[in-house]
Amino acid sequence: MTTHVPARKRSSFVMEAVREKLSRESLKAVVLCGGEGMRMRPLTLTLPKPMLPVGYKPMLEHTIGFFKEEGIYHFIFAIGYLGEMIVKYFGDGSRLGVNIEYSTEENALGTGGALKNLEKHVTSMFIVVNGDVLFRRLEIRDILRFHKERGGIGTMVLWHAENTQRYGFVESTNKGRIEEFIEKPRDPAPGWINAGLYVFEPQIFKYIPARKSVSLEADVFPVLVAEEKLFGYRHSGYWADVGMPQDYAKVNRDYLTETVL
Fold this sequence. Notes:
By secondary structure, the chain is α/β, with parallel strands linked by helices. It has one domain (7-256): Spore Coat Polysaccharide Biosynthesis Protein SpsA, Chain A, CATH 3.90.550.10. The protein contains seven helices and 13 strands. The chain has helices at 7-26, 59-69, 83-90, 110-116, 140-150, 216-226, 245-256; strands at residues 28-33, 53-54, 57-58, 74-79, 99-104, 126-130, 133-136, 154-161, 168-172, 178-183, 191-200, 230-235, 238-241. The strands form three sheets. Strands 1, 4, 5, 6, 8, 9, 10, 11 and 12 form a nine-stranded mixed sheet that branches. A two-stranded antiparallel ribbon has the order 2-3. Strands 7-13 form a two-stranded antiparallel sheet. A hairpin with a 2-residue loop joins strand 2 and strand 3. Helix 4 packs across helix 6. The protein is globular and about 55 Å long.
C-alpha cells in the first residue's frame, strides 16, 4: 500500500528543508581560543591549547570538520595567547572550504569579554564553542530547533558526568529551562554539566559590559537563570574537555582506537 502525499504538502516540506539548510549555512560559529592553557604546561608554552594535535591535526581543525559536517561554514576565532599561530595555520579558512574571521583580544577579559569584543560581527542567532572541547554524534539542527522553540536568550549543551566538580553543575526542568547553575561545585557528585557549546541570541551582549573582565559562567549565566532565559539541551554522544594532561591523553587514545573523530 502506497501513501499519496499531496503536491502542496511535498512542496511545503521541501521549502522548509531548504530554509533550514540555508539558515544553518549562514550561521556563524564563534570559537573561544584565546586562553593560555596554564594547566596544560609545558605543552602550551609554545602552542595555544586549541592547536595541540589530536591524531594528525590540531583540535581546532577537528572542530571545523565537525561543524562543516553539520552544514556550518562561517567561523569567528576569538584569539589571544599565541593567536598568530592560529592565524598562520588557518588563514581565511579557504584551504578547508570555510570562511574564518578573527577577533583579537589584546588583554585577557575572560570568556564574556572575549565574546563582547566581537559583538559587531554578529547580528542574528549564533553558536559559541570553547576551543578545547570535542563533540561527536551531536545534531546541530536539533539544538537550533530546541533553542527556537524555547524562546530564550541562550541554550547550553549539557553532558552527564560522573564528577561535576571540575565543571559547571546544571539542574534543569523537564522542558529544559535551567533552574540552577553552579560553576565548579565544591563537592564531587554525578550530574549534568556545561559542555562548552552554546546557542545565543544577539541580546546576550546586553548582559556583558564592555572593556571589563567578564566570565560567562560566573557572571552572565546566573543572571540568565534568574530571568528564566537560559535553557539546557542534553547531549548523550561523545564529548571531551581537554583541560588537563590526562584529558589530552584520553582524547588521543580515543582517536587512535576510532572511538571519536
